Amino acid sequence: MKNKKNLVLAIAIFGGMLFTVQATNIIDLDGQTTNKIEVKKRKLIKNG
Fold first, then answer.
1. Which of 2, 11, 16, 17 stands the most exposed, by the fewest C-beta atoms within 10 Å?
2. What are the C-alpha distances in Å from 36 to residues 28, 29, 32?
3. In whole angstroms, what is the distance from residue 6 CA to residue 14 CA?
4. Over pLDDT 70: what percentage of the chain?
C-alpha cells in the first residue's frame, strides 16, 4: 500500500513538472509574435 502511494505521488509530481514546462513554452512563443504589418514596395512597370 505504501509503495502504491509513493508511485502515485511520483507520477503526480512528474505530471506537474511537464505541465509547467509546457506552459512556459507557450508563454515564450506568445512573446515572439508581433502584430506588425510588413509593407512591400511595388515596382511600377512602364509600357513600351
1. 2
2. 18, 16, 12
3. 12
4. 65
